[in-house]
Amino acid sequence: MNAVDTNILIYVHDLRDPIKQEKAERLVASLTDGVLLWQVACEFVAASRKLAGFGFTVDQAWREVKKLRSLWTTKLPDWRVADRAEQLMKQFHLSFWDAMIAAACLEAGVSHFYSEDFDNSAAASGLVVINPFA
Q1: Taking the CB of the first residue and of the last residue of the chain, which one, N or C, has fewer CB atoms within 10 A?
Q2: Average pLDDT of 59-69?
Q3: Which CATH number fits domain 2-130: 3.40.50.620, 3.50.50.60, 3.40.50.1010, 3.40.50.300?
Q4: Residue in 33, 36, 11, 40 with CA at minimum distance from that of residue 23
């Protein structure tokens, strides 16, 4: 299974970098076994405000989340994710939010996580982190 970070979803709608936008669009469209992480969905709606000047609205962000929910499996947080995040923070010195995403991926059976700026030390936990723009 695969999951994407918030920055990938933002790039799908960000007109400022057409090359990254195209790559992000292709990636998201290709993930038939995608997992939408709760944290990523929430961060996407919050971060979509950055795109308001380019015509992308928060209402559109909510519609995008609903579309992804219908296409992908949604992973909601539970205490197992928090407990695993605590272990990842200690073991790999991840930030809290990176540990939460890595833990949610691992708990959901995600093997590949696509992100532009994720801490690669999470790879030691068994999660393959891929920068689709590299």
Answers
A1: C
A2: 97
A3: 3.40.50.1010
A4: 11
